[in-house]
Amino acid sequence: MATSRTVELEGHIIDSGMMQRVFGLVMDMGGSFHVETFEVGTRKDETSYCQMTVSADTEAELQPILHELHQTGANIADPVDAQLEPAPRNQVVPRQFYSTTNHPTQIRHDGEWVEVEQIEMDCAIVVEPDQADGTRAYTKVLNAIEEDDLVVTGEAGIRVQPPERPRDASGPFGFMQGGVSAERPSESLIEDIATAIVETTESGGDILAVPGPAVIHSGARDDLARLVDAGYVDYLSAGNGFAVHDLERDLYGTSLGMDVEDLDHPRKGHKHHIYTISQIIRAGGIEEAIEADIIDEGVMYQCVRNDVPYVLAGSIRDDGPLPDTITDAVEAQNAIRKQAHEADLVLMMATLLHSVAVGNCLPSKTKVICVDINQATVTQLADRGSGQAVGMVTDIGTFVPRLADEILDA
Amino acid sequence: MATSRTVELEGHIIDSGMMQRVFGLVMDMGGSFHVETFEVGTRKDETSYCQMTVSADTEAELQPILHELHQTGANIADPVDAQLEPAPRNQVVPRQFYSTTNHPTQIRHDGEWVEVEQIEMDCAIVVEPDQADGTRAYTKVLNAIEEDDLVVTGEAGIRVQPPERPRDASGPFGFMQGGVSAERPSESLIEDIATAIVETTESGGDILAVPGPAVIHSGARDDLARLVDAGYVDYLSAGNGFAVHDLERDLYGTSLGMDVEDLDHPRKGHKHHIYTISQIIRAGGIEEAIEADIIDEGVMYQCVRNDVPYVLAGSIRDDGPLPDTITDAVEAQNAIRKQAHEADLVLMMATLLHSVAVGNCLPSKTKVICVDINQATVTQLADRGSGQAVGMVTDIGTFVPRLADEILDA
Amino acid sequence: MATSRTVELEGHIIDSGMMQRVFGLVMDMGGSFHVETFEVGTRKDETSYCQMTVSADTEAELQPILHELHQTGANIADPVDAQLEPAPRNQVVPRQFYSTTNHPTQIRHDGEWVEVEQIEMDCAIVVEPDQADGTRAYTKVLNAIEEDDLVVTGEAGIRVQPPERPRDASGPFGFMQGGVSAERPSESLIEDIATAIVETTESGGDILAVPGPAVIHSGARDDLARLVDAGYVDYLSAGNGFAVHDLERDLYGTSLGMDVEDLDHPRKGHKHHIYTISQIIRAGGIEEAIEADIIDEGVMYQCVRNDVPYVLAGSIRDDGPLPDTITDAVEAQNAIRKQAHEADLVLMMATLLHSVAVGNCLPSKTKVICVDINQATVTQLADRGSGQAVGMVTDIGTFVPRLADEILDA
Amino acid sequence: MATSRTVELEGHIIDSGMMQRVFGLVMDMGGSFHVETFEVGTRKDETSYCQMTVSADTEAELQPILHELHQTGANIADPVDAQLEPAPRNQVVPRQFYSTTNHPTQIRHDGEWVEVEQIEMDCAIVVEPDQADGTRAYTKVLNAIEEDDLVVTGEAGIRVQPPERPRDASGPFGFMQGGVSAERPSESLIEDIATAIVETTESGGDILAVPGPAVIHSGARDDLARLVDAGYVDYLSAGNGFAVHDLERDLYGTSLGMDVEDLDHPRKGHKHHIYTISQIIRAGGIEEAIEADIIDEGVMYQCVRNDVPYVLAGSIRDDGPLPDTITDAVEAQNAIRKQAHEADLVLMMATLLHSVAVGNCLPSKTKVICVDINQATVTQLADRGSGQAVGMVTDIGTFVPRLADEILDA
Prior knowledge:
alpha/beta; globular; 3 domains
């Protein structure tokens, strides 16, 4: 005897691909469906509505199907409350905890829909009922879970709203269905990216820059520094290596210490790299080195001078590290998370590791621009379920100068 | 008035490319040279000897030339002692400290040549004179430097011995001059790698495995586990992600949680990933989970059962992490360093980050096998100044089963 | 005053993504739509039907929208005949000619729907009315068009049927929505590919092998030869370089002439390559060289011995070429086209150029397996609108032996 | 009883790596050597000289060693004449024919050294003794060999001069030892490339442009057209696809016909592509279409207007082709060869196939600049034994505009 549940979808569910994914998922996972109601939006500004019954042979087979449908935006129809269960221990979630998507999400509590705060994918939802300002719900990553936190379990009483295809296709942020905009002429795409950055800043939004060491090696350092100085960077998230290369350029000029990300040339100029770290340690940190006039230009210099908060995360391949670098991965992730939640637009530049770390914390509504010479990197980052991502496969050393010219000299 | 210094080279300096690099470096860096003596080995088993004077316009120009020559194996001729200077503070090296290569190195102290222990590139050399067992010299990374450590500075009194071209070209470890062995038929290269692994183990050597998550996703988990169980893995160095995917496969079977390294699919199966971590946290760790019969197969299981020490290093893109994961980058790097120094052969499998971290700590005499689907990764790793590296561009999911068959079923 | 046209879609139009593409296309191209009828298949085996009116401001804007909708499977509803116009000259098509997709297509003539023969993308459709066996319609590439050929123009009276998502997801040929099956464990995917090949052969289908030179260099030559000899290859399409490397291996053994596709090592062993061609020219061709016992093993040898027709296409980077090589690009394309139209399953192995040439001629219903070490190559080939394509990113030198073992030793 | 031969090397044989390769080759191939004389250049402007005896167990083993040494610049010492043998038939070379490198080469005839004309790799050398202007020697590709041509065989009486490391390292053309200049800041490298182009043109040299379709798709068409118009392109070598995309942009504007090289999007805009070809066919060719005012801008337009000769080579993946396209591979290769031999500087832009075809015909002294988004392509092309090659991994859509600005607006 089959078991079944009714789910519903609402919005521009056809052209956003939601209906297709829902039908496909049910069939891929061995279930079946029966469409009860289907009201199609007859014009492009009208939304559609679908109510369907999804069945499987056993409850055990139905559960994963419902889970996947949920993540896609098909919400269980029954107007029940979300189930809550206390966490049995610190960092331990209840069995069947609800794992979030990066899409806007609501949970039902005491008959009311509550918006989940700080939305981020792969988290648990913790509910605090009956606060002064009503019930609160927010995400927590696994290691932040505390014993007795009320964690949402199951799939009922939760609504997910994936991004919809914009009705108007202007601007660089099209509705990317798993792909990189290789079809755009490069120059015109840079212009559109410049416009998006300027508009974000002018409307009071915050821009998070995520640069890799290649920004320095490829000669784009001064142009990124100009953008920081002109107020187009509100936060910076990078690694120890990026900062050291930037500072080293100031201390030792441009002739040494050049290389591709992750893999410094085994010999050339590495002594300067280490001595740079040593000097900053002696000064007490980057800010102190600037105060002591040891450093007087570059990206880190402009960040300090313009009060742009930066996170430097450590990694197992670092030299040093600098005193400013957060070596604990969990602590660094939390610092990155904070910046990611503030950002309205993220500019990822030639770094896979840091871009992934930032991308993991972003809600799907944040605009993302990802630039890298490696097509695979761009595809992966621009295609993480974000409705507003644009990728560009190009050399960071020609991209940043062109972008800075476009923004600052226009 | 030019300044000059005499350097000497000895060994198979022509066919190892040392002479070429020395001549090239001097010219690239604006110096000039005068060969005083050149005794060429007239047969392939005879070494050559070259003494030459290197000049530059100023001492400031000469210093970097001498530094680079050193790293290449051209040692300053004058039989003087290495200069020692106390470190001014913790984590601060003296100006002009000597930065190591990954080649065997000796320093001269009180007229005697002392072998530098724990050789590793980009380190300082600390000397402890007049110990019970004579003078000791060993490498220290920057963050291990303590105030008043006696650090070697300058270039005099130091000898470096880069690996020489083997006189006999048999075996997989040819003398790679910056390249990957794409010219070898795949099957025969796997056979040679198997032979090198078996020979290392049979002669009592230690093998360090460095696997990425793709080993699990591509279906090679059982074959790697078989190799651990059969005693062909002595140490394992990986990331939190590798271990979680391995454990998850045991807890949830093979149908979910699949993906490429670094970038888990944003939705599918991620809940299992997090719940796996949660369960291991509840048990107290991997070993405890095995004792509690929660885990009874896979790579981590075989490591615990066969007392194979493992290092799981954290990263800013991790979920969790597991209780076993070392989240502090400096601490993790030290744990990796310890394994790297013990290893006689390192097998890097489809992970850039961890391979680089391990590779940074290896002396050039350690055998390295690097397998990855990405040619750029293989080239970079196999080409870090190592005299005994072999790279193979292939799918880890077909490589590991073929390797295990070759080793275990032969 | 807007202009509009009614189109209709039928089949599994939701889960095949057709509805989504149709809505998206209209909006991207500045049009609007009004859904007149939407009958949704309420269960997974029921098809859906949609009739909608598509509008644009001018006929000039509407035409390209209708063209794109067509290619996607949205057919103009009005039951009119397809328009026919004579070609004005040889190799010149009428303005507004209909350019084919690779999907099954019908045109309406004299009130009857006629299946278009030899379907292939980017061709014109030529109609021969009133033949003995009724009206015929078939594709012609541009250079085959003859003056006065009746060519279909416009969009009316044409029906396109894109492949639908299979209702049953078993087997390697899933419904690929723009991607490569990186999520499949390698070994299990090879088993599925072996099964598909065996089933095709056993059911009387024809297999077309498209190998690049890397098949030889990587050591997989003997295994491909075994597959030819055992009857699992019915046609072979390759380049001059593939054949020469195969023959050279027979003449000069395995020690020389190794390299990656397209870019032979500038020096090593090239003399053998040229002398191999010279010897075959002297013999009069490959078949003659085999008769003269100059060649007695390898892929080309087994093709001749087993009467497997082969096409060797020339290219501007060839040496020689062999007497068997077709140097004229148009003639070679026609020979490839003939093989492609016969094939039921195509196995593309490590060659971009020849795989694209073959792929251009394939109808979307032909099964395609594409194996290459380069992810970009695999993605591009497996994603050319084919409903039955499977891609695998792996080393051809381990893939072919595993495949041959799976097929022949099972 | 071993057999041996004396070879000699002269020039900057240490820092050009010649000595290293010679020693390595002998050992790799199982031979041994004895250095008879070694006179080292004691300063950077002095050349070195080495005479050595190379031995192997049998003549059969010695021959391939001598062959490889030759290609590296180690010439057989005995002052004998080169051996000549008549070609037995058209397109058939004598056994043991000498296969050329791309380096300057001389052969000895009647006791005199004769420079080999039209040097190109992988060719035979044909000698015409006793001409009016003395003995002539020149290269012939295999398919140009005629019966009774006097072809050089063996290794004696031939001198090869590989490029030497420039004594002065300024300019973009360093001495690349198998690598791409990833260490150069992008902007400064573009400036240096611009300078090399301007200098070549100003000194009366000829520039050959080799563009792929991506030049058009990425929006760089107008900038390349500007360079042609300003006289910085003397020859153009491309494929049918490049020309069609260029012409199509003129006929249909910029909104369609977009894509990456080799793999046109299966559907979008392809009709325009084919109709463009159809229109040019109707006009009779590109020049005729320009005369008829059908085409009035773009790269092909500027080539015709400025009398820049172009070669359009056909390929098996072409549509059409255009009437101007040479469809026969051998004929096309000969046309390319003629251009390649005239060129002083070659600018390869985002096309592997055509760059390889051109590169195959180039002597090693020709300057080569190779720009591509794909690192593997750049490495392969910049590393074909050329002494004057520079590679740049970047987006052609930002490179060409920057280059044109640098050259034209400076």
